[in-house]
Design goal:
The structure is a homohexamer of 238-residue chains. With 238 residues, chain A is of the alpha+beta class. Chain A contains six helices and nine strands. In chain A, the strands form two sheets. In chain A, strands 1-2-3-5-4 form a five-stranded mixed sheet. A four-stranded antiparallel sheet of chain A has the order 7-6-8-9, sandwiched between helices. The two termini of chain A are 35 Å apart. The A-C interface holds A 82, 85-86, 88-89, 91-92, 96, 99-100, 187, 191-192, 194-205, 208-211, 214, 218, 222 and C 82, 85-86, 88-89, 91-92, 96, 99-100, 187, 191-192, 194-205, 208-211, 214, 218, 222. Chains A, B, C, D, E, F: This is Ribonuclease PH. Chains A, B, C, D, E, F: One of its GO terms (molecular function) is tRNA nucleotidyltransferase activity.
């Protein structure tokens, strides 16, 4: 039995609270159980140097954790003077995942800056971030359409993410911290509304996994992400 | 008339929500109107090098703003690789203010790390931080007493802070962002429950102020802080 | 037809040159076609702080590219004052992959430091690095056995890595730079001699991939890695 | 009795030596007793990015201490790779204080860069810096007038600064190091020639101060600054 | 007798391998005995800010050592976040030495970026770097001539470098690591094909040297550099 | 005729003012004409890590320039967050030069920290620094003898430094800024009281120099340094 009493294929309670803070064009609090992340999408005119004059837009993401979002306090990266390798890995993943569904050509010379800041961590902060940030980006770009700055929403599909893993030999969906720190294999999967893969990142620091386990994890992830996308749709309809 | 329709000596609605996140020994969401700051107090054993072996404790504070807590997005300090002068000034102020009421000798060789992270900014983030952080520190140290790690609460008095200023010639209390960005003089005042001053920081980048205005501002601050300390007491009793 | 005239499942010519430089305990030049990486393994006594006194060892990796290993010169990271996110991602991947097959408990309080420096780049530098670094680590730890510092080789299995991708709709093995910069999906796979997965990192910045393509890529990778491990064994026997 | 045998309201001997070094447009050695600071004002064409095209000028300040200006050697900030929070606080204070009396609109698109470097420290380095830097800025801008680059001196009033504090229960003016390191409250006051306040920064790390003490300190500061401004006038007339 | 059995005035075996890697305009592996350095010359259009619009070119150099090019592993400078003073000294020396023989005026608004990366170190890495980098620069600029981008080769003379020193009282040429770490005086000499000096850098951390020893060392260096320039000519003719 | 009307072998007026600031164990203002450098020597117990437990001492140097010590303002290195290559080169040179005459074994586990801060620059700051720092170190170590912490002065000989160069074809001694910025060759020479060489650093960015010029420069330097050492002796006797 999982520590949280969940079924192997059961997500934690997920909540998506739109308009969470008031300044950003898109602002969403996403909760996967006790994991809470504020995702904002800010739209700025102009693009980074390498895209100047190409008539297309860009989207990039940054990620951070409040020092005491975790069980023991982490050092503040701003005070350390640099972002850890883990932080950079995660923010690159969030950026790639969202770019895969945004039509950058239709965006024009604008940049969407996504910020995912973890208020409280209990495993799965990167997958929660992607899932919540999609809604924030959707809100921000809808606002541009509403203001007449864009004629159509430059979003091709939904995107959401979930973790899966092998915990005590059992393939499970959406690992919380107690599971995550005690599992053999951890895989983060990012998929579109059409059920296609954008990212698959599986890692075994403990016991290597075989093809059967790989398939079981992908099945769990596909079902979990389908459910998350339903929840995104409900939030956006709300 | 003030932009917010408030009386000159009227605070914004203030809320102090305890136990806001679950990992920290003390965790408070403080709201001064639309200004929202998460204040956590973490207790660690050990002290910084310059205090080793002196048998006393220490308290230090860090401050940050989420990039889109403000009207236009600020650059993330962790990505910039350093904290701004303003950030350092504020976190030093928060630390000094709290140390003035904590009995560091009675704390033993422990360190209290205060984190103030601004979720949404509308003026007065440093005064809200001090006011909220006091409650978080109170909760954290009460927990040590409750666990038997301390025999008595090593807190000598309350501390709270508020801004005052001269806005269009009028002395006003607790400036919000529209007032703050349009005032001649801005003063941050930190006081104890006994009505004594810990910090007075008045700045005129515009028109210099005279002794009469100084006195008017101190009067407003004294009354405002007395009210804030009542609200702290109510929150701690809640 | 692939730009390099290779069959879809065909590796580039692979060479593993042991004892490439003379100071390191293990030193290997690995070539995957025109991609050339010097992999060294250095053994030091002692472990990082978080492992002190636990009676086990550690292995960590660093990665770099010579500024003109690439078609246009990249800025030197040492002169920039920081390692890029991509560099950190790769060196974390190399470290995790090798730790998965080294018996850190049997290593004792020693640290293996792996350095992978790209002399010439033509795609696949991270997979070549893992494949070559395994041989360097094997040589370094064999030397400890030979010197009597270890009684048995603390290596549980081989590890090697290869990239696979979808290039112009075609699943292909071991992408070179022309394919890599023009493919829809790119996946790096790390596997053991026993045919189990250590890492699977698939990314679609272009067109998302479906489950069938996923399976085709994993099949190519499994066969490719089996062949790479044969080459490692031949090199170690040489 | 004060350690220096001074009366409570007595300044240390103050000297302002103009044209101290030969390259800067304005160069002043300021001495408050044993505290010695070289203040230079450099004029450059152009303004920082945020002021470009606004037709106004800017003034900014930097502050440093020679490593052995103090009783025990401080680490060199250039070698440490960053300026301390204290340094940043002080240089921001110097800049704001001087900007309050310079007519930036009349300055044109020029920037005045003030450097305050402490050669020998004995308390009050920031107040000596402001007092001396005013004379250096006055010299630099007078030179522009003399060269015909400005038609009138863009300075509205004098500015000077002094510290006051409560030392062993006694309100005192212009604290030297032995008093500063042993006082309950320390307040830095910056005032104009017209007797108005630009900055008031009072801090009690020890015993909080009451309104009466506040008033006593402000009285001492007003008298002290009036005397400092007389000395500035004498120096400029010299 | 020297540890390497060489005569006092005998160079180590020197090899210059052109076209060592394939991307750079000039790429040379230089070997002075067991010291091996990859020298590349990259040509970019444009010049640094301080030369913009002056119609001339520039040449600059960077230097690095692979972490395990040495007997015990050195920390990677990119991971440390800065280049050591030694590295900066060496790369400034290489740049000055090459600029002394390149006709920067005839180069046009182009920049030559030289990278010297030490693969294996056994003393004399800076002198090997200069000697090899000259050949790489020659190849890169010859390519510009061949492509019709320059009408004549903007190189005025050869340049090469060698170390000399006093080892156990004996003046010797081209010190290897065992000699270098055990000598009283070490001098690096850079000379042109015409036998003139570009740089002379002699250092005695141990016993200071007299004028006679100075002259003996300069004699050895002159003969050694003449031989190195013959080898450069042979390599370029090859 | 030299711009300063000096003879080719004539030093600028040199002054060595001891006890220039009051906190350091040794504190000297050295002037070579308009070049002014404050040199302090601070003695601390303990040695750097690489010398712990070896029973010997260490001496190290740091160098800086006030931003407006020069004709146009230089950026402050502390604000830039790093020391330039030039700064590092100079401080390494100062350290090596002084270590060559200090008996580190007799110093015990103490460290001498030399700070050379340029107040006003007019060429030759590094040679003035070495010449002045020797006197500061002598004063600092004499104080240890006087206090009974050392039985004898651990200084083996004097050390001083001067620049020489070829200016408009003429070998000259002690270049000032107008000469330095317009010369073909510049050489810094560091010698002992016994007339032996510690450092010779000659550089030709313009026209390479021949052996005859080398000899002429060394002759000028030898005479100049002999004179500087007389001045050191006079100052120490004063």
């Amino acid at each position: 039995m999982r520590p949280s009493q969940r079924e192997p294929g059961q997500l934690r309670p997920v909540r998506l609270t739109r308009h969470y803070t008031r300044h950003a064009e898109g602002s969403v609090l996403v909760e996967f159980g006790d994991t809470q992340v504020i995702c904002t999408a800010s739209v700025e005119s102009g693009v980074p140097g390498f895209l100047k004059g190409k008539g297309q837009g860009w989207l990039t993401a940054e990620y951070g954790m409040l020092p005491r979002s975790t069980g023991s306090r982490m050092k503040r990266e701003a005070a350390q003077g640099k972002q850890s390798g883990r932080t950079q890995e995660i923010q690159r993943l969030i950026g790639r995942s969202l770019r895969a569904v945004v039509d950058l050509g239709a965006l024009g010379e604008r940049q969407v800056l996504v910020d995912c800041d973890v208020i409280q961590a209990d495993g799965g902060t990167r997958t929660a971030s992607i899932t919540g940030a999609f809604v924030a980006v959707h809100d921000a770009l809808s606002l541009l359409v509403q203001r007449g700055e864009l004629t159509a929403l430059p979003i091709r599909d939904h995107v959401a993410a979930v973790s899966v893993g092998i915990w005590q030999g059992l393939p499970v969906l959406d690992l919380d911290y107690p599971e995550d720190s005690d599992c053999e294999t951890d895989m983060n999967v990012v998929m579109t509304g059409a059920g296609r893969f954008i990212e698959v990142q599986g890692t075994a620091e403990g016991v290597a996994f075989d093809r059967t386990e790989m398939n079981q994890m992908l099945d769990l992830a596909s079902a979990g992400i389908a459910r998350l996308i339903e929840l995104q749709k409900a939030a956006l309809a709300g």
